[in-house]
Design brief:
It is built from eleven helices and 14 strands. The chain has about 325 residues and is α/β, with parallel strands linked by helices. The strands form three sheets. Strands 6-7-8-3-9-10 form a six-stranded mixed sheet, with helices on both faces. Helix 3 crosses helix 4 and helix 3 runs parallel beside helix 5. It binds adenosine-5'-triphosphate (ATP).
């Protein structure tokens, strides 16, 4: 009897080199639990889209072991394809068809019986608040509504894993919030595993069960947003100056006091990563006052996911699995 894997996705030591010699993945490993929202974060060119193309069977890895829903990617690509759906940057909506026609067309691609397809369509239209748009032509929808419809289309086949490549890119805050609600609904009500990529850190923070930070084709950290924050296990001191150049000048002057990898400039602030908050707070305060360096404020700050992302993606020596 085949055992059900607790993991939706397992990738082990995946390498991928394109024909032009670019090494897009360099030994990437990650695990995605069934039913969770998993977010992949990485700078441009980190290899996120390459990984999605591999996991959705469009691209073969050079080497490494990948299983999706317990099925081996090399042996069972067809079976995997039947159980997943992928919403990419290019929408799969046909602008000449109505909303309902688009959904029914999708159901025919998956050979879903008509009555079942109609039931599923009505449920999805209701679940994702699309009813009010039924009377308008699809071509008139805003980008956010088109994206919502695209996701609904991809859910017609009841996929077990839904891949979303930057689902909220370029959206205004209202549309992004509607999209977050939609993703939570997909996880809560349908039990679908959601695998998404994003550049928005606050999105990863508020929405994800697990976040994986990628750099240069490899994971640098994977864990819950909370665990990632704990990973740094460092408080931060934030000193605010009147301008970025004032912050830069002060950091130069303080360079003898703190190790270079403990100091970072962010906008008009200087961030000090510290393991001894009292000692370093006193050192920084005394230095600033003694040298009459003008500053607007000094405070203790918990690192955000942003700070962790910057720290991990800037420091190539850091690696962590949480
Ligand atoms: N078809 C291709 N042929 C050759 N090189 C490619 C191809 N697709 C991607 N690359 C290169 O592989 C590396 C990883 O690209 P990928 O698109 O996977 O990164 P990404 O993290 O998705 O970036 P972005 O956030 O900008 O979409 C980059 O250096 C990119 O230029």
């Amino acid at each position: 009897m085949q055992q059900t894997s607790p993991y939706a996705i397992c990738a082990e030591q995946v390498y991928k080199q394109y024909k032009n010699g670019v090494q897009a993945l360099s030994g990437l490993s990650l695990t995605v639990k069934r039913g969770e929202i998993f977010t992949l974060l990485g700078q441009n060119g980190a290899g996120k889209s390459t990984l999605i193309r591999i996991l959705t069977t469009f691209l073969k890895p050079g080497s490494g072991k990948v299983s999706v829903l317990g099925l081996d990617l090399n042996r069972d690509a067809d079976r995997i394809r039947a159980k997943i759906a992928c919403v990419s940057q290019q929408t799969s909506i046909d602008m000449h068809l109505s909303l309902r026609e688009n959904m029914m067309f999708q159901s025919r691609l998956y050979r879903i019986p008509k009555a079942a397809a109609k039931k599923r369509m009505d449920m999805l239209i209701d679940a994702f608040d699309l009813t009010q748009y039924l009377k308008y032509p699809v071509s008139s929808y805003s980008g956010g509504i088109k994206r919502r419809l695209d996701i609904a289309l991809n859910l017609m086949s009841e996929p077990e894993v839904l891949f979303l490549d930057e689902p909220t890119v370029g959206m205004d805050i209202q549309s992004r919030m509607a999209m977050w609600k939609m993703m939570e609904k997909i996880r809560e009500e349908f039990g679908t595993t959601v695998f998404l990529t994003t550049h928005y850190l606050e999105e990863a923070d508020s929405l994800s069960d697990t976040v994986c930070i990628m750099k240069e084709g490899k994971e640098v950290a994977q864990g819950t947003p909370f665990a990632l924050r704990q990973y740094i296990r460092q408080d931060m001191i934030r000193i605010t100056f009147s301008s970025k150049s004032a912050a830069g000048d002060s950091v130069k002057r303080m360079s003898g006091l703190f190790l270079p990898d403990r100091i970072r400039i962010q906008d008009n602030c200087c961030l000090l990563f510290t393991e001894d908050i009292r000692r370093d707070m006193e050192t920084a305060n005394v230095f600033l006052l003694k040298n009459q360096i003008p500053f607007l404020g000094i405070e203790i700050k918990q690192p955000s996911l942003d700070d962790i992302f910057l720290k991990l993606t800037e420091d190539s020596k850091q690696e962590a699995c949480i």
